Amino acid sequence: MKLTVVSAGTTSPSSTRLLADRLTESLTKQLGAAGETLEVHVVELRDVAVDIAKNMVTGFASPALQAEIDAVTGADGVIAVTPIYSASYSGLFKSFFDVIDNGALSGVPVLMGATGGTPRHSLALEHALRPLLSYLRAAVVPTGVYAASQDWGGQDAAELHDRIDRAAGELAALMTGAPSRRRAADPFAAFVPFDQQLADLGHLDT
């Protein structure tokens, strides 16, 4: 099975990548216990940031960026993690998903995660990330994982670990469930433009 991990962290190392790695580790263990093997591909958005910006203004993806887009849209599951700036996802994270065709993630199981300096930004998962991924028709798991700075140590670390395992378990269930691995049909795939419908009617009159 193929997993693509999207990390929008801008530093190396970053707490965003750390959370992405923890989620991947938990998912790998849970799928392994179910007899599944996992092929993991990590997309570090900072490495293709310039390519994303050029795609935004030209409409064309570089080979490097296209390879990363293909890795996301062709995966059996996706983990997408972003830092939170000004109570929302980063501009780099949003720009990457903006250059992905609408519907290309249709039916793909996605686990969303985010990091920030304060717990106050945790709601960004629900008011920003979930609507974005749902708009792309992804199958977003119920549990999103937010990690504030304080969550990496002490009692909060245990609670973060539990959230990670719960969310990874939900992603594993979607990835291994037969219905969830079938891409949802595009309801507009058979759409016929209005002018074509009129032309067809005219042809029938003759």
TrEMBL record:
InterPro entries membership: CE1759_FMN_reduct, Flavoprotein-like_sf, FMN_Rdtase-like_dom, NAD(P)H-dep_FMN_reductase
Domain of life: Bacteria
One Pfam family cited in the UniProt record for this chain: FMN_red
Protein name: FMN reductase
Annotated ranges, domain NADPH-dependent FMN reductase-like: 1-152
Gene Ontology molecular functions: oxidoreductase activity
Residue runs in coiled coils: none
Keywords, sorted A to Z: Flavoprotein, FMN, Oxidoreductase
SUPFAM superfamilies: Flavoproteins (SSF52218)
